[in-house]
Each structure stands twice: as structure tokens, then as C-alpha cells.
């Protein structure tokens, strides 16, 4: 029995050692498989990070290019706006100068017309005075004007003014001789 026990003991020890070897071997395989799986997952994670990083880099470069294009367009727009503003300012300045020249020309014309009007008023006043003097002289001479008298010395315009002062109708359509006749007939 001792022998059987020893034999059993040996067989048991051999089986335990075999189980230990099997366990160590299985542990090595499991560890190797776990390391391989971890390596594979790590590589996948690196690949995902690399892919995401590449996408982010591309997106960043595209965004940078778009931003640079927008900055360039904005700069061009600002230059165009400045050019347009300069053109508008130049046009406004030119228009103001033109308006000032036109206003000065109109002022000169108005002054000239005022001088002409003053001269016309002065001439009309002189004619009125002469007409009154002629009318008084005519009245003093008995209300008669001689045919070759002073009226021939007057211009048609002067005669129209005299006819106006004594109320002759249609005087503007009359000839010089008709005016003289009308004035003489009223004076008689």
C-alpha cells in the first residue's frame, strides 16, 4: 500500500506539475493574446487619432484658406470703397466749384441787369421830365404844337413814353409819325 500511495503521490505530483505547466503555458498564451489585443487596440486608437488629426489639420488649413480669401476680399472691398469715396469727394468738390462759378455768373448777370434796369428807370425818369416840360411848353404856347416842332427830334421810344403820359391808346403799335400826329391832336 505504501507503494500504491507513493505511486499515487507521484502520479498526483506529476499531474500537478503538468497542470502547473499547462497553466503557465495557458497564462503565457492568454497574456500574449491580451498583449496582441492591446497592441491592436492601441494601433487602432493611434490610427483613429491620426485620421482625426489629419481631418482636423485639413479642416484647419481649409478654414485658414477661406479666412485668407475673405480677408483679401475684404481688403479689396475696402480699397474699392475708398476709391469710390475719393471719387465721390472729387465729384462733390467739382460740383461745388461748378455751382460756385454758376452762382457767381448769375450774380454778375443780376448785377448787370440791375444796372440796366437802373439806367432804364433813369432814362424813363428823364423822359418823363422832358415830357412834362414839353407838355407844359405846349400848353404855354396855347395848346398847339407846330408841325415841324420839337417832336421830330424825339425817338420813337421817347414819343411812346410821351404818349403814355398823356393817355394815348394803341401807342405801342403806332409809327413815329402816327405818334407825333396823336400827340399833336391831343394837345390841340
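Q: What amino acid sequence fits the structure above?
A:
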Amino acid at each position: 500500500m505504501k507503494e500504491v500511495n507513493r505511486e499515487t503521490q507521484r502520479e498526483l505530483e506529476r499531474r500537478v506539475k503538468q497542470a502547473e505547466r499547462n497553466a503557465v503555458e495557458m497564462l503565457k498564451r492568454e497574456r500574449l493574446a491580451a498583449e496582441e489585443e492591446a497592441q491592436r487596440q492601441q494601433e487602432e486608437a493611434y490610427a483613429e487619432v491620426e485620421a482625426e488629426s489629419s481631418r482636423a489639420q485639413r479642416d484647419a488649413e481649409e478654414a485658414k484658406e477661406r479666412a485668407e480669401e475673405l480677408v483679401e476680399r475684404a481688403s479689396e472691398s475696402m480699397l474699392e470703397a475708398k476709391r469710390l469715396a475719393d471719387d465721390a469727394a472729387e465729384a462733390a468738390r467739382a460740383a461745388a466749384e461748378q455751382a460756385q462759378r454758376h452762382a457767381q455768373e448769375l450774380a454778375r448777370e443780376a448785377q448787370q441787369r440791375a444796372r440796366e434796369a437802373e439806367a432804364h428807370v433813369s432814362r424813363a425818369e428823364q423822359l418823363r421830365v422832358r415830357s412834362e416840360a414839353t407838355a407844359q411848353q405846349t400848353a404855354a404856347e396855347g395848346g398847339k404844337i407846330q408841325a415841324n416842332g420839337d417832336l421830330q427830334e424825339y425817338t420813337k421810344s421817347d414819343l411812346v413814353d410821351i404818349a403814355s403820359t398823356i393817355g394815348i391808346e394803341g401807342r405801342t403799335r403806332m409809327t413815329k409819325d402816327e405818334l407825333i400826329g396823336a400827340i399833336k391832336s391831343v394837345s390841340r
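Q: And what stands out in the fold?
A: Residues 2-140 form the longest helix (139 residues).
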